[in-house]
Amino acid sequence: MLDQLGALADTPWIYVIVGLSVLLDVFLPVLPSGVLVITAATAAAGSAVSAHTGTAFPQMLALVACAATASVVGDLVAYRLAWRGGDRFDRAIARSRRLTTAQERLGTALLRGGGALVVVARFAPAGRSVVSLGAGVMHRRVREFLPWSALAGLTWAVYSVCLGYFGGKWLGATWIGTAVSVLALFLAGAGAAFLVRRPHRMEAEAS
C-alpha cells in the first residue's frame, strides 16, 4: 500500500482517494481514513526525500486541506440526513444503549457550550458518526455544530498528516514509520474515548 501511495503522492489522485475515504468514514466508521491519511503523508514525505526537493510542505498542506474539507463535508451530509430522517435515526439510536448515551451526552455538552466535545470525539472510534448524526437528530442549529465540526476536522487532519510526515522523516518512509504513526493515532483515539466517557462517569458518581 505504501508503494502504491508513493507512486500517487505527486498526482491529484492521492487527494481524490483521501477525500473520498474521509468523507465516507462518517457513514462507514470501519474505513481506515486516518490510516490512509497517515500513509499518504508518509509516502509524500518519502517522495520528497527521494526527489531531493528538500521539503514536502506543499503536499502536506494540500493533504491537510483535503482531509479537513472532506471531514466537514461528510459531517454536514450526515447532519442533514439525520435532520430530515429524524424518526428513523431516533429508532436506530434507541436500539443501541451506547448511541443513546452518547446522544444525550452530546446534547448536554452543546447546551452548556461544551462544543469541545465535538473536537475530542473526532479522534474517538465512531465518535464523528455519533456527533454528526446525533446533532442532526436533535435538530441542533448549524451555528452550534458547524464551527466545532470545522475545528474538529482541521485538528484531526493536522494531527494525522503531521504523524505521517514526521514518522516518515524520522523513521523513513517504511512500514515501521507508518506503524509507529498509526499507533500514535490509535492511542489518541483511546485517550479521546476515555475523555468522552469521563464526564458521564463523573455525573453518574455525583448522582
Descriptive labels:
81% helix; membrane; 207 residues; elongated; VTT_dom; mainly alpha; single chain; transmembrane; 0% strand
User: What is the first-to-last residue Cα distance?
Assistant: 50 Å
Shape: elongated
Based on secondary structure, the structural category is mainly alpha
Cα-based radius of gyration, to the nearest Å: 18 Å
User: Would you identify the regions where 5 or more consecutive residues have pLDDT less than 50?
Assistant: 200-207
Number of strands: 0
Task: Report helical residue fraction.
Answer: over 70%
Q: Mind summarizing the main beta sheet?
A: none
Q: Could you tell me the mean pLDDT?
A: 76
| Helix and strand sequence | HHHHHHHHHH
How much of the sequence lies in strands comes to under 5%
Number of distinct helices: 10
Describe the structure in your own words.
It is a multi-pass membrane protein. It is found in: Cell membrane. It holds the Pfam family VTT_dom. Residues 48-165 form the VTT domain. Keywords: Cell membrane, Membrane, Transmembrane, Transmembrane helix. Helix content is 81%, strand content 0%. It has helices at 2-8, 13-24, 33-50, 57-84, 86-94, 97-111, 116-121, 127-137, 142-171, 175-206. The model is unreliable at 200-207 (pLDDT under 50). It is built from ten helices and no strands. It is elongated. By secondary structure, it is mainly alpha-helical.
